[in-house]
Amino acid sequence: MKRIVLTGGGTAGHVTPHLALIPHLRQRGWEVHYLGTQDGIERQLVGSQLPYYPISAGKLRRYFSWRNLSDPFRVIKGVADAYRHLRRIQPSIVFSKGGFVAVPVSLAAWLLRIPVILHESDLTPGLANRLCAPFARKLCVAFPDSLNYLKGGAARKAVVTGTPIREELLKGSREKGLAICGFSDRRPVLLVIGGSLGSALLNRTIRENLAQLTGRYQIIHICGRGNLEPEMKSPGYYQLEYAGEELPHLLAAADLVLSRAGANAIVELVALAKPNVLVPLSRRASRGDQILNAASFARQGLSLVIQEEELNGKVLHETLGELEKDRERFIAAMQSSPIKDGTSKILNLIEEEARRG
């Protein structure tokens, strides 16, 4: 039996590509295992599907925190945890989606001479993948432009594969999506996605301008866990914390999408040809990866972009109007885009590197 260990976590973006790969890996005869943190989102998303092995991990913060003093010890313990699990599982290969949990797993795999493949969804590599690159055999990147941001060994290991896209997202029913929300087919539907943790800025902007927005659109608002406001009830407004099995149908129901600019989410929007407005996280709250993602999509004519600092009700209303007016042009651009589902390329690369051993 061929065995593979998947790892990655911290946000849903480090996990959802695994969800796209898992059924195909099983079809190809792989026994799939997962190494993640004890209480991370990765355990919530995959823990019931796979044998799951928790390890210690230190968060790779870019700001001062007293916990930065103890986190190196957590990483060391994580390497020991991962080493022990990998010796027991004896996988042919490790596939990592990044996030801080990936660092101890990649190092432990390297110590055991187990090949590691990394995948980077963003235009530029994150800190975890930069730290893991010396221990990896290959670095999969989602976009050809990503090659411009890589140097040295990482550049030599890079392969443009695209990002795996969950097959079920392509099978949604507009009718089911409208029925879930209690919406009609007579007015356009705006889907608001703030990422797996939600977006306080998007939530506030939508709710402060709800009367004006629902005058034009029916709104599906995925607001993030703990961010529901039950007292906010309005005809044509449907809010939920998180979308699981219903997500394909909600996406199918959407005519327009307002979203953060996490790489996995926006690649899925292109695959579904959903006209979208992106509001990337500012550099105050991130390393700037979403700003680069959004700028790249805007240059390709795939998205309109509003920077965080510019977002208000007036700008949002005007930008949505522009998107709606040019909707067919955006759909055509997405349908002809070179950004494609990377599932097959990544599966073939996994097989190839596992055979090399």
Provide a descriptive summary of the structure in words.
The protein is α/β, with parallel strands linked by helices and 357 residues long. It folds into two domains: 2-164 and 341-356, Rossmann fold; 168-335, 3-Layer(aba) Sandwich (Rossmann fold). Helix content is 41%, strand content 16%. It has 15 helices and 13 strands. The chain has a seven-stranded parallel beta sheet with strand order 3-2-1-4-5-6-7, with helices on both faces. Strand 4, helix 4 (102-111) and strand 5 (116-120) form a beta-alpha-beta unit. The radius of gyration is 21 Å and the shape is globular. The two termini are 15 Å apart.
Radius of gyration: 21 Å
Major sheet: arrangement of strands = 3-2-1-4-5-6-7
Briefly note the structural class of the backbone. Answer: alpha/beta
Under CATH, the topology of the largest domain is which? Rossmann fold
H/E topology pattern: EHEHEHEHEHEHEHEHHEEHEHEHEHHH
Biggest sheet descriptor = 7 strands, parallel
What portion of residues is helical? 40-55%
Mean pLDDT: 92
- Cα separation of the termini: 15 Å
The CATH superfamily of the largest domain turns out to be Glycogen Phosphorylase B
Strand content: 15-25%
Count of helical regions: 15
Number of domains: 2
Give the tally of β-strands: 13
Under the CATH scheme, which architecture of the largest domain would be assigned?
Answer: 3-Layer(aba) Sandwich
CATH class of the largest domain: Alpha Beta
Low-confidence parts lasting 5 or more residues at pLDDT below 50? Answer: none
Sum up the overall morphology in one term: globular
